[in-house]
Structures are given as C-alpha cells and as structure tokens.
Amino acid sequence: MNKFFDNAGIIAIGSRLRMLSEKMVEDATKIYEMYNMDLKPKWFPVFYVLSQNNEKSITAIANEIGHSHPSVSKIVREMVKEQILCEKKDKNDGRKNNIKLTPKGKQMANQIKDQYLDVQKAVEVTLNQSRYNMWYAIEEFEFLLDQKSMFHRVKEEKKLREIKEVEIVPYEPKYGIPFKNLNEEWITTYFKMEETDRKSLNNPKEYILDKGGEIVVALYKKKPVGVCALIKMNDPHYDFELAKMAVSSEAKGKGIGLLLGKSIIKKAQSLGAKKLYLESNTVLKPAINLYHKLGFNKVVGHSTPYERCNIQMELVLD
Amino acid sequence: MNKFFDNAGIIAIGSRLRMLSEKMVEDATKIYEMYNMDLKPKWFPVFYVLSQNNEKSITAIANEIGHSHPSVSKIVREMVKEQILCEKKDKNDGRKNNIKLTPKGKQMANQIKDQYLDVQKAVEVTLNQSRYNMWYAIEEFEFLLDQKSMFHRVKEEKKLREIKEVEIVPYEPKYGIPFKNLNEEWITTYFKMEETDRKSLNNPKEYILDKGGEIVVALYKKKPVGVCALIKMNDPHYDFELAKMAVSSEAKGKGIGLLLGKSIIKKAQSLGAKKLYLESNTVLKPAINLYHKLGFNKVVGHSTPYERCNIQMELVLD
DNA sequence: ATTAATTACGTAATTAGTTACGTAAATGTA
DNA sequence: TACATTTACGTAACTAATTACGTAATTAAT
Asked: Can you name the residues that pair with B166 across neighbouring β-strands?
C-alpha cells in the first residue's frame, strides 16, 4: 500500500487522505469505548456543537459542521433514540426543528471533557514530533484551494503544457483548405457565410496576400488548428484589418488565439503599420475579450461590408 | 464550518481529513472530464497499478492499493463492463482471477499520461506555496501512527492525567474494610480464600502492623482503590514479604500498582531492609510483570503456607 | 392580498467503501 | 493419502455519507 503511494505519488493524495481519516475514525471508536462513552465517532460533530450551544436547528448544525442537512437529520434521529438529544418545534417558525441535549446528554458532555483533553494532548504531541505540522498543513492547503480550486490549477497546468506544442507559422498554399474550413466553422455556427467571406476564403492569395496582407497559421502537434489574417486597407486612418481569426473548437482554451493575435500584430509592426482595425460581433464574447487583451479599443462610425458586424475596434501601434 | 474546526480544534482532525479528501475527489471528477477520460476517480488506484503491471490478481491489487478485496472485485467488475479491463482465470491456480488492461485500457493508460503530469505539477505547486508541506506532513503523521497508534497515545495521556489524582497514604483503621475487600476481589476471582488470608485480612493490625509491618493505601479521587502490605518475616534471608497487593478492577491501567510497589519498597528501605520476598502465581501476568519492573527476580526453594503460590521472587536492596 | 421565491427538513435513492460469510482450490500435516 | 488449514474471491449486508426531490412554512414582490 505504501508502495502504491510511493509510485503514484501526489496524484493519489485523495486516496491517502481518505485512508488516514478512516484510520483515525477507527481509533476514535476504540477511544470512546475506553472512556465508556456511548457515542459513535460520527455523532461527535453534532454532539460537540450542541454542547457548546443550548439549542440549534438542523440546518444550523449542518452549516456549522459542514455536513448536508439530511446527514444531520439522521444523526439526530439516532441520538434522540439513545436519549442524548431531544427535538422541539420552534414556536416562531414552524419549519424549524430545534435540537438540544437531554439531561443525559449534558451529563455525557460533562463526562467527556477529560477525554477531549487527553485526545487533544495526544494529537498535539504527535504533531509536534513531526517536522511538518499536519494540522497547519491542512489549514494552509484548504486556504489555497479556497483561493483557487485544484481543478482550476490543473487546467492552468494543462494550458501551460499544451501551449508549448503550439507553433505559429507563415501561410503556405497547403494551408488553403484549413484556412477556409476553420473560418467556415465559426461563421456558420453563429452567422451565415456572406459574399465577402467566400471571396477571401477561397482565394486568400489574390484577396489578401497579393494586396500586401499576411496570414499566419497555428499548428498544434503539427496540425493546423488556428489561423489569422492581416488585410491591407484602403483607408487614410488604418493600415491593416485584423480578420479571419479562427481557432478550431477542439483546440480552444489553450491560448492559441492570443498567440495568433500577438504574432499578426508583430507582423503588422514589421510592415510599418501605425493603426489596426477590426470588426466583430458582441455575441462572440471570448473573441471580444481577446481583442481587449491584445490592446484593441472600441470605435464607431465606419462602414462595413459585413452584416454580422456590430462592433468595431482599433489598435494604435507605437 | 471553519468555525467548528477552530472551536473543536485538533479533536476533529478525522472529520477534517474526510472533508478534504471529499473535496479532492469532487475536483478529480471534473478533471477526468476535462481530459475526456471515462474514468471514475475511485477506479484510479486499480487502473494505475494495472498500467504499471501487466497482470495482477484481485487480492494482489487490493493489497497494493490498501483496499479490501471485495472493493477491488466490484471496481474490476465495473471496469470490465466498460471494456477497460479483462479477466482471465490463472492456469496454475484455479482460485486466482488475473486482471489486465484491454487494448482500450492500454490506450487510455497512454492517453492519461499528460493528465498525470498536469495534476502532479498542480499539486506540487500548491504544496510548495505552503509553509507546511501537506504531503510530507501526512507521510510523517502516518509514520508516527505506525509506531504508536492514536489509541495508544490517548491511553498514555489518560494514564498521565489520572496518575496525578492518585495519592499513596499510610494505613489507617478506616481503611480496614477496603483492605479486605480489594484483596478478596482478586483472590476469589482467580483462586479461593485460604485460612492465612482470612487471618491477615480480618486483623491487619494484629497480623501485620503490630509485628513491625506496614500497609499503604492508594486513593484515586480521594477513594481507596489499591492497597499493599509489607509483612515482617522470621527468616534469616529476608526482612519483609511484599504481600496483599491489590488494585480495584475499575482503577486498573492507571499505573497504581507501580506507585504502591515503589512506595512500599521505599518504606522497607527506611526500615533498614536488605532483602524483600514475595509469592505469587504465574496466571497473574500483569502482577508478575509489575514485580519485574520493581526489580524482583525469581527464586526457588522456599516453603509457603499458600496453595496458590507457584512463583517466588526476591529483591535485593542497596 | 395574491403569487412567487426561498427556506427548513424529511424521505428515498445512490455512492464508495466496509465486514461477514460461504465455497472452492491449494497447501500443509499426521 | 486423508483431513485440516489457509488462501482467493464472490455475494450479501451494513455504514456513513451524499444528491435528488417533495412538502410545508415563511418571506418577498407585485
């Protein structure tokens, strides 16, 4: 068993915690017996809060000890049968079931104090014998998880690892089909293809590159999963339009859009651009977000050939 | 909930461990989903050992991961249904059910490697952000519990606390009844009362004290719970016999016998004794143990008035 | 004053483990 | 070689929690 933890390591931390907690509960049973306390370990949290408070409702107890209310409900029923607790409907609120210790329960609460002292000492001594205090360690770990869950942390690591396998390369004729398909994917799911789309997607060389524009392609594990174009504009205010940005749905969430955007902006700068322009639609929230992250700001009052455009943005380069 | 742990403190360590482990399992479910792995968290230990070993029997897996074998049996059945594992009777041993990964399972094992890496990194990063590394802390704690269980540790604390409430006082006439009853208790449970017993238990003054002997009484919370006598001997080899040592069954396990013994030996020394003698029976193992701890050694060849005596011991005082 | 939403809490079903027990195969022993 | 013991493992019952859901009481909103 220890071999398993040594091999699997940290990824088995959940199993390890469960086993340790089971071991503790097992010993707790024997400890209650030694002190002649007719209490099951699982009753302890309920018993404890009621010995500190005169009276509490089911949900109030559940919240305090971090159990679900049905769990408390069941525990209370068991303890009522053993005449440790008694129930009483709340006078002002007919839904509430107020629970408190019976005289027998109070006597037990008194009797158990020595046991608490001994257990506390024993655990403290054990913790103090170790270099890494487990009680503090758990406290810290819970605090860190409250700030950012383990799921969230793993997601971040995944992204970090995957982005290393992403490569941004210049357009080549062999990327013609992916260039078209990746763009069609998002356009047809949210809008419909327009005439202007068809032209530039079918003939990127003629409509984009030959006019002085650029296209970059994102490869993930050597396969094209994202594209982005820089289109030369005939406009006194803007040099280029950032357009035809697309990332395949399977490759989303890896930060590929950001890489494409940064790469195309760099290209624009190397071409001497001073100002970039783009058109989009506010339903594409992640895209708008990305454009903001890249430094684009909203502008108004430009004409557009696209029906789907309801937001226009610009980026001033230095 | 945190309030509960803050109040109850360390004695709720079992609950806290359980909750933390539940939180980890919850996140694990979401993590498997994110990687499109059709694995339940509870399958992980079985899956892991089988991806490290070609083939293993049910109990071999159970031992390695620290589960009961029915648990593994159930998990394996579920995974066989999902065609991740396959079973095969052992050729040499008809009882054994050898389990291994199917091709699908092997493919999953290969696919899951990235996930392992990410999870490991994420956990490591979290642990390194804390002052007390929880993984090491658990390792240490388990090590300490292996050496001495929490039950054992609590028992020791109990003894330490209780021994403070034990007082050894000299005999007084009011302890006549307890002196008799405490001795009758053990004699009648293991043997039967003999004439010599009756005499000295009914008339301790005449048969023990007036002949130059001593009696001490142990009080626990002011109540007499143990006695021990020092009886003057008419023997060239021995000054006194240690006898009539008795501790009430309710007060056993608090180390009262040791206190009584030490006290009576001290008394013997103050009376100038050079050598003590005692008689006992080997069925009384804790007693024999205690006599050894006090320094007594086995001797042979003395006559005794007691039927129940089958071991004789002496202690040389310096 | 109704109606809608929320809260309290019980019951039922589910989950992930356990212990208890029975059977068959293998192993040890007289 | 026969019989007892041990081992492997499945089934059943139990345990301690959960989620899902329904009902009644209270509170908020129109």
From this structure: B220
Residue A292 lies in a domain: yes
Last residue within a domain, chosen from B122, B153, B184: B153
Distance A89 CA to D26 C1' (A): 15
Residue B228 and residue B217: Cα distance in Å, rounded? Answer: 7
Q: Are residues A148 and A224 in the same domain?
A: no
Proximity of residue B102 CB to strand D below 7 A: no
Helix, strand, coil percent content, chain B, rounded in steps of 5 = 55, 20, 25
- CATH number of the domain that residue B234 is part of: 3.40.630.30
Interchain proximity B137–A132, CB inside 8 Å: yes
State how far the Cα of B182 lies from the Cα of B198, in Å rounded to an integer: 13
Beta-carbon separation of A154 and B48 below 8 A? no
In whole angstroms, give the CA distance from residue B176 to residue A100.
46
Task: Give, in Å, how far the C1' of C5 lies from the CA of A197.
Answer: 49
In chain A, how many domains are there? 2
Boundary residue ending a domain (B97, B127, B153):
B153
Per the structure, the complete domain to which residue B19 belongs is given by 2-153
Same domain, B148 and B171: no
Q: Output the distance from A93 CA to D29 C1' rounded to whole Å.
A: 21
Contacts of A8 (CB under 8 A, 6+ apart): B45, B48
Return the residue in A2, A10, A143, A160 with the most chain B beta carbons within 10 A, the one to mutate for interface testing: A10
Residues 6+ apart with CB under 8 A from B2: none
Which H/E stretch holds residue B134?
A: helix B134-147
User: CA–CA separation, A294 vs A171, rounded Å?
Assistant: 21
pTM of the model: 0.75
* Separation between the CA of A153 and the C1’ of C18 (whole angstroms): 33
pLDDT in tens, chain A (318 residues): 567 888 887 888 888 998 899 889 889 999 999 999 989 999 999 999 999 998 999 999 999 998 999 999 999 999 999 999 998 888 888 888 889 999 999 999 999 999 999 999 999 999 999 999 999 999 999 999 989 999 999 999 998 998 888 999 999 999 999 999 999 999 999 888 888 888 889 999 999 999 999 999 999 989 999 999 999 998 888 999 999 999 998 888 888 999 999 999 999 999 999 999 999 999 999 999 999 999 999 998 787 778 888 899 999 998
Asked if the Cβ of residue B74 lies within 7 A of any atom of strand C, the reply is: yes
CB contact under 8 A, B27 and A149: yes
Cβ within 8 Å of residue B7, ≥6 positions away: A48, A52
Out of A15, A21, A161, the one facing B18 most closely (by C-beta) is A21
User: Same domain for B167 and B283?
Assistant: yes
Residue A124 included in any domain? yes
**CATH number of the domain enclosing A60:** 1.10.10.10
Chain D positions within 7 A of any protein Cβ atom are 7-13, 15-20, 24-27
Here the tokens at position B251 are 């007060």
A chain contacts of residue B116, beta-carbon cutoff 8 Å: 11
Tell me whether residue A159 is in a domain.
Answer: no
